[in-house]
Amino acid sequence: MYGKCGNLELARILFDNMPARNSVSWNNIISAHGTHGSVNDSIELFQQMKDSGFEPDHITFLGLISACAHAGEVEKGYQIFQSMIEKYAILPRQEHFACIVDLFSRAGQLDRALNFIDKMPCKPNSSIWGTILAASRVHRNLEVAELASKKLFELDPENSGYYVLMSNVNAVSGRWDGVTRVRSLMTEKAVKKIPGYSWIEVNGVSSVFSSSDKSHPEWESLYLALNGLLSVLRDEGYVPDL
Predict the structure, then answer these.
(1) Does residue 192 contact residue 164 with C-beta atoms inside 8 Å?
(2) Among 50-64, 120-134, 192-206, 222-236, which stretch is predicted with the lowest mean pLDDT?
(3) How many CB atoms sit inside 10 A of residue 207's CB?
(4) Source organism's superkingdom (predicted)?
């Protein structure tokens, strides 16, 4: 819990004071540091895990590769993946392949990610192609985005998130005809965009909000405050990415 919340200091204090540890607790603390980009700490903990007599498993390596992906340590992450297979005789699962694709994609190495997918012994799932599509938007690679979206529309044709992401890729690239084409495809396949919701708790009372929501009893005051914040942003020179 502390690790996922980003409080690595408290997570580490609890871990260090545990009367007994097992593979689960070691994997949790390794993953916690990795998620927040502390790749060196993750690797150091991995060594301590082995020194303590615990053998790493497939979850351990997921945490380590993910740590490298978040920190941009591409070669180190790929070396860890190879050592998992060659040194520890752990066969990679779909999740490990997805982690390597994420490792390359985050660094903008989309061609390398596609080459890796081609050599995978198993068929890539929607999670892997979704990673490619998301990275294509970040790195503005329309060609790769179109390839990934084609695969995703075949694998998961009712997932509105992929259509929206592909529409955003086109918008970022200034391809408004592509935006129209994707929206028309959604209409043709009767795909409905699921609205996103936000939760906030104030004084023990939880409130739920969605876009253009007016169900809250104080919605007028809330929108007034929101517009005030937007006005301050504009005065500071902020230009929104539409």
Answers:
(1) no
(2) 192-206
(3) 15
(4) Eukaryota
Which residue, chain included where needed, has tokens 């009367």? 19
CA within 13 Å, CB half, 10: 7
Reported as a single tens digit per residue, the pLDDT across 28-68 is: 999 998 888 788 999 999 999 999 999 999 999 999 999 99
**DSSP structural state of residue 123:** -
Best-predicted range by mean pLDDT among 69-78, 151-160, 231-240? 69-78
Other beta carbons within 10 Å of 17? 7
Compute the distance between CA of residue 162 and CA of residue 144 in angstroms, rounded to an integer. 14
H or E element, residue 206: strand 205-210
Distance CA 237, CA 242 (A): 15
Q: Where are the alpha helices (DSSP H) in the chain?
A: 8-16, 23-35, 39-51, 58-71, 74-86, 94-106, 110-119, 126-138, 142-155, 160-172, 176-188, 219-235
134-148: b or e for each residue (b if 16 or more CB lie within 10 Å)? bbbbeeebbebbbbb
pLDDT tens-digit readout, 162-183: 788 788 777 877 778 878 887 8
